[in-house]
Amino acid sequence: MMGRLISSRRFAPLFWCQFFSALGDNFLKNALVFLILATMAAQEAETFVSFAGAVLIAPFFFLSALGGELADRHDKAVIAKRLKFAEIGAAAIAVAGFLMMSIPVLFVALFAFGTISALFGPIKYGILPDHLETRELPSGNALVEGATFIAIVGGTVLASIAFKLSDATVIAVTLMAFSVLSWLAPGSFRRPARRRRTSSST
C-alpha cells in the first residue's frame, strides 16, 4: 500500500512537499548553527545555538491553532501552495543572510520558516482524509512522519557537508532549491470532487 501511495497523485505531492519543506527547515537551522559555532566564542555560541532551536519551534506554540482554522475554512491544497510560495520569500531572506554572513538576518529567515511550518502543520494532516481512504490513513500518516524524520537527519548531514565546502553560495542555492521544490509539489494535487470510497483510483 505504501508503494502505491507514494506514486499516487492523491498523496505523492503532499509527501514531497512536506519532505522538502522539512529538509529546508533543518538545513537552514543547522547551517546557521555551524556558522554560529565558526564565528563566535564558545560561551556566546552556546547561547545562540539554543536560541536558534527556540526561534524555529516557537511559532508552533502560537500559530498551530491558526493553521487549523485555515485548514477548516479554505481549500487546503490552495493554502499549502500559498504557504510554500511564501517560503520561497523566506528562503530569499536566508540567501541574503548567508551571502552577507549575517547571523541576525538568518535568524529572521529561520523565524519565517518556523512560522510557515507552524501554519502548514495542521494542513498537511487535515488534507489526508480528503484524498485517502480511511484504511489508507495509517500508511499515509506513517509516510509523512517518516519523511519528516528523514528530512531532519538529511538536513543536518547536508548542512554539515555544505558548510565544510566553505562556500556560502552553495548553501544559499541548496536552500532555495529545497523551497522551490516544496512549492512545486502541491501543484500536481488532484483535488477530489467528493470523498473517495474506493482504493483502486490513483
UniProtKB/TrEMBL annotation:
InterPro entries: MFS_trans_sf (IPR036259). One of its GO terms (cellular component) is plasma membrane. The chain crosses the membrane at residues 48-71, 83-101, 107-128, 140-163, 169-189. One of its GO terms (molecular function) is acyltransferase activity. It is found in: Cell membrane. SUPFAM superfamilies: MFS general substrate transporter. This is Acylglycerophosphoethanolamine acyltransferase. It comes from Methylobrevis pamukkalensis. It comes from the Bacteria. It is a multi-pass membrane protein. The keyword Nucleotide-binding does not apply. Keywords: Acyltransferase, Cell membrane, Membrane, Transferase, Transmembrane, Transmembrane helix, Transport.
